[in-house]
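Hello support,

Our group uses your service weekly, and this is the first time we've seen a run hang past the timeout. The protein is Aspartate carbamoyltransferase. I'm not sure whether the cause is the sequence or the server load. Input pasted verbatim:
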Amino acid sequence: MRHLLSTGDLTRDEAVLILDTARELAQVGERSVKKLPTLRGRTVVNLFYEDSTRTRISFEAAAKRMSADVINFSARGSSVSKGESLKDTALTLQAMGADGVVIRHSASGAARRLAEWVDGAVVNAGDGTHEHPTQALLDAFTMRERMGHLEGLRVAIVGDIRHSRVARSNVLLLHTLGAEVTLVAPPTLLPVSVGAWPCQVSYDLDEVLPKSDVVMMLRVQAERMNASFFPSAREYSRRYGLDADRFARMADHAIVMHPGPMVRGMEISAEVADSARSTVVEQVTNGVSVRMAVLYLLLGGAIQGPAQQGETR
Ligand code: CP
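Update from on-call engineer: The timeout came from a worker crash unrelated to the input. Re-ran successfully.
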């Protein structure tokens, strides 16, 4: 694995290796070990052309916990405003010694283009409406932690599938790992290509909910769409929102997930988002371990026992 651009590029063994490595790194963290020297001397550049809270901070925390040097680049306030291209920006960062580049960009395919231009490892942190592989990996990690397995797990992904890079990355990864995914959305919020995705499709949330082990709610991405896709927030919420009544109809063991950012009161009620069966906060915590695993595996650090690592508490 040289880059992480799409979960569709991962074999089952590679995906399991990332999840297992993340588990091992999470256990090190649970022993109050704050920092590992694993990536000392490596430089990770976070290249963010789109806004982010969770992903950007999580990659920064992951790289720093493994002692990498981190350069944070935000397109806002940079020479991008003077017309500098992605390629020239990337080559500039490479000239400063980047071993790994984490990129978020509004254009689908930007991460794959970047991988053609730079020598270091490229990690896709979200490219347009295409993919968000580390989000799917942290989601799978969270499901496995909570439910104990992924094989045969029935996962409903609900909401704006059309504009969701999280949905596509999850469908591809969960299929590889043996879970059964059903996408639930109004027809206008499904991508044209959905028939070719390895999953089921439904327009009826109330029918799918009681049969699901995991219910992943997605935000309606108003910033990426035209009004004809999404006529009324109230109507959407009535048909596709997860409120207390619907939550009560879920199986007792089922969990609720959301990648964030959430719009409380729209796709998910505050009561459901804050319930003990919601994994929203755990997903954020797990994201750091999963991103540590990805950086470790791509940048070639060596996992050793804590004694050899000279870890810092
Ligand atoms: N889930 C996610 O990608 O959140 P951010 O946009 O805040 O990074």
